Automatic annotation (TrEMBL), chain A:
<dbReference type="InterPro" id="IPR013563">
    <property type="entry name" value="Oligopep_ABC_C"/>
</dbReference>
<dbReference type="Pfam" id="PF00005">
    <property type="entry name" value="ABC_tran"/>
</dbReference>
<keyword id="KW-0472">Membrane</keyword>
<keyword id="KW-0067">ATP-binding</keyword>
<protein>
    <submittedName>
        <fullName>ABC transporter ATP-binding protein</fullName>
    </submittedName>
</protein>
<dbReference type="InterPro" id="IPR027417">
    <property type="entry name" value="P-loop_NTPase"/>
</dbReference>
<dbReference type="GO" id="GO:0005524">
    <property type="term" value="F:ATP binding"/>
</dbReference>
<keyword id="KW-0813">Transport</keyword>
<comment type="similarity">
    <text>Belongs to the ABC transporter superfamily.</text>
</comment>
UniProtKB/TrEMBL annotation, chain B:
<dbReference type="InterPro" id="IPR013563">
    <property type="entry name" value="Oligopep_ABC_C"/>
</dbReference>
<dbReference type="InterPro" id="IPR027417">
    <property type="entry name" value="P-loop_NTPase"/>
</dbReference>
<keyword id="KW-0067">ATP-binding</keyword>
<dbReference type="InterPro" id="IPR050319">
    <property type="entry name" value="ABC_transp_ATP-bind"/>
</dbReference>
<keyword id="KW-0813">Transport</keyword>
<dbReference type="Pfam" id="PF00005">
    <property type="entry name" value="ABC_tran"/>
</dbReference>
<comment type="similarity">
    <text>Belongs to the ABC transporter superfamily.</text>
</comment>
<dbReference type="InterPro" id="IPR003439">
    <property type="entry name" value="ABC_transporter-like_ATP-bd"/>
</dbReference>
<keyword id="KW-0547">Nucleotide-binding</keyword>
Length: 333, 325
């Protein structure tokens, strides 16, 4: 089956104070129709940049240097602004990280929803109130239909996030939804509700979702397939069970190992040595090698390719030789 | 020397600015009749969602806010009287939530670490104060090379170590930490948690840690208190609260961040209902009633903490809803 989105060797760089830094280095990933794909990584791993590259929504100092961004067979990188405008929102919806700052604070909510519906669906304003009520019911906001003439600040963060999901996922009827850390600013009980809502919408609407997050627990609960990113590279890919039950890349294991619930309370946790920020721009070899407990000479010399492994792909010279339990790794202090 | 921290009937009420038309003021009961004890050298984790009053509670214990009612004892000394403020601050120190915004960006780390010594007149002269600052930095895993540096350009993990060192400078017996891991990445979190465990042991501290991440609370604490709209709704040994949550709200929290068992179990976890209420909202009776799946007529009155196994929970219907979620 043709994938809905196929990103091939995407490279995105940022210019800052005369220097160029590569945020995404030759990353490739695919999303099939109706699939929930997770992209996991720490801040600065390039996961949000990859999404924004696809949508052409990068800040002015960033640039897609190379790669193909095929959405339904059309390369969004070369398609031009007119095509991008018709894709953004209408074909690919976006649920932002901070619901509070994504709506205009000085415009009533009803007007903002109407405007979006008109843009994405050419909705007749006379009929839009019924559509809005229907939308709100779909995302469990039936109770606020009477408050639509309020301003965004009069709603809670969880309500606004539901509202934005209603617009992005239901109102515009896209085929693909990008959710960029949609739960990080929410309280745990509300975040759990939003995750369930996304899953329900996938089931009801057959929507494909790319869920970007550093929260492993949310990814485990929501996603079918997961990509793990480190310093701009995709280091591992696999279905959600193989990633969480049999992680192959040492970084994935270190990530899983940093979940406190997996260790004896009140005892020191295993810690990953070093930091990602010290990586030189023109590095050779595996990005993770300086922090990796099982790195050997070849890891510092050659960049590992993402190669097929049981149940997915992994970019590690030491696979499968480096297989072991998570707690073999990075016992630093 | 670590000492027992005991909080008795502590309340903090804020009076909002009144309406310009009616002149009526709205009182917000941010912390309502909270009693807690932390044994010497132990850690209590205070868990709850935004607006539940957990930050107000630690800020009141730290002496930043004056308590509206109640007492705070460190050892046998009541430090809640305003004239005991200097003694209060010597005994109890707070590590604030955001390390960068709590440091002066234009002053060096040296200044941040020696200022508390100057204020509390510790150390004979500047040279000794500086020696103490250097020792503190080493104790939290940084080196004396950091003394002349400015906060800008340091990583969040390093800044977190600096603010912990600053809080330890005047040798308090109680350390309060407000969301110490909320602003850092996953792999840095583990490092900060190890730092806190290490510092608590080597400085022999009584600690209270605020967090909304229940698995971090579980890893770092001996006892756990769950707060909802200004009140403690469950209080007990950490493993007990975690493994046998009694209060319906605790069950919801534990389920939404279940750290035990497999991670991939999408359909097993019950999904919480309802929104986190605002602090100003007044609910008659049990504050959790609007979100609770077990409400009955009896919930119209405010439930008090009562024993349930080895913990305590404030719920009228403990017996009806059983011990397992």
């Amino acid at each position: 089956m043709e994938p809905l989105l196929e990103v091939d060797s995407l490279r995105t760089t940022y210019r800052r104070q005369g220097r160029t830094r590569t945020a995404v280095r030759d990353a490739s990933f695919v999303v099939h129709a109706g699939e929930v794909v997770g992209i996991v990584g720490e801040s600065g791993s390039g996961k949000s940049t990859a999404l924004m590259s696809v949508l052409g929504l990068l800040p002015p100092n960033a640039e897609v240097v190379s790669g193909r961004l095929l959405f339904d067979g059309v390369d969004l990188r070369t398609a031009g602004e007119a095509v991008l405008r018709s894709v953004r929102g209408r074909e690919i919806g976006l649920v932002p990280q901070r619901p509070m700052t994504s709506l205009s604070p000085v415009t009533r909510v009803r007007r903002q929803i109407r405007r979006l519906l008109r843009h994405h669906r050419s909705e007749d304003p006379a009929r839009s109130d019924a559509t809005i009520a229907d939308l709100l019911h779909r995302v469990g906001l039936g109770g606020v239909t009477g408050r639509l003439d309020n301003y965004p600040h009069q709603f809670s963060g969880g309500q606004l996030q539901r509202l934005l999901i209603a617009i992005a996922a239901v109102g515009a009827r896209p085929r693909l939804l990008f959710a960029d850390e949609p739960t990080t600013t929410l309280d745990p009980t509300v975040a759990a509700q939003i995750l369930r809502l996304l899953r329900d919408l996938r089931d009801e609407l057959g929507l494909a979702i790319v869920f970007v997050s550093h929260d492993l627990r949310s990814v485990a609960q929501l996603c079918d397939r997961v990509y793990v990113m480190y310093a701009g590279d995709i280091v591992e890919e696999g279905d959600v069970r193989s990633i969480f039950d049999e992680p192959r890349h040492p970084y994935t294991r270190a990530l899983l190992d940093s979940i406190p619930g997996r260790h004896t309370p009140l005892e020191p946790m295993p810690v990953l040595a070093g930091s990602v920020s010290s990586l030189p721009e023109d590095r050779r070899g595996c990005s993770f090698a300086p922090r990796c407990a099982i790195a050997v000479e070849v890891c510092h010399e050659n960049t590992p390719e993402l190669l097929p492994a049981a149940g997915g792909q992994v970019a590690c010279h030491r696979y499968p030789a480096g297989g072991g339990t998570p707690s073999d790794l990075g016992e630093d202090r | 020397m670590s000492q027992r921290l005991r909080v008795e009937g502590l309340s903090k009420t804020f009076h909002g600015r009144g309406s310009w038309r009616t002149g009526r003021t709205a009182a917000v009961h941010a912390v309502d009749d909270v009693s807690l004890t932390i044994e010497p050298g132990q850690t209590l984790a205070l868990v709850g969602e935004s607006g539940c009053g957990k930050s107000t509670l630690v800020r009141t214990i730290a002496g930043i806010y004056q308590a509206s009612a109640g007492h705070i004892f460190v050892g046998d000394t009541d430090i809640s009287q305003r004239r005991a403020l200097r003694r209060h601050r010597r005994a109890v120190q707070l590590v604030p939530q955001n390390p960068l915004s709590s440091l002066n960006r234009s002053r060096s780390i040296r200044h941040a670490l020696t200022q508390p010594l100057r204020v509390h007149r510790i150390g004979a002269d500047t040279a000794e104060q500086e020696r103490r600052a250097a020792t503190l930095l080493e104790r939290v895993g940084l080196s004396a090379d950091y003394l002349p540096r400015l906060p800008v350009g340091m990583s969040v993990g390093e800044l977190q170590r600096v603010v912990v060192a600053r809080a330890l400078a005047i040798e308090p017996s109680v350390l309060l930490l407000d969301e110490p891991t909320s602003s850092v990445d996953l792999t840095t979190k583990a490092r900060i948690m190890n730092l806190l465990l290490d510092v608590q042991r080597s400085f022999d501290l009584t600690c209270m840690i605020i967090t909304h991440e229940i698995d971090i609370a579980r890893h770092l604490s001996h006892r756990m208190a769950v707060m909802y709209l200004g009140r403690i709704v469950e209080y007990g040994p950490t493993e007990e609260v975690f493994n046998r949550p009694r209060h319906p709200y605790t069950r919801m929290l534990v389920a939404s961040a279940s750290a035990s068992g497999p991670l991939v179990n999408a359909d097993a976890a019950p999904v919480p209902v309802g929104e986190v209420p605002r602090a100003a909202s007044q609910v008659d009776g049990c504050a959790f009633r609007p979100r609770c799946p077990h409400t009955a007529d009896v919930c119209g009155s405010v439930p008090l903490l009562r024993p349930a196994g080895t913990s305590q929970a404030a719920c009228h219907r403990l017996d009806e809803i059983g011990a397992d979620s």
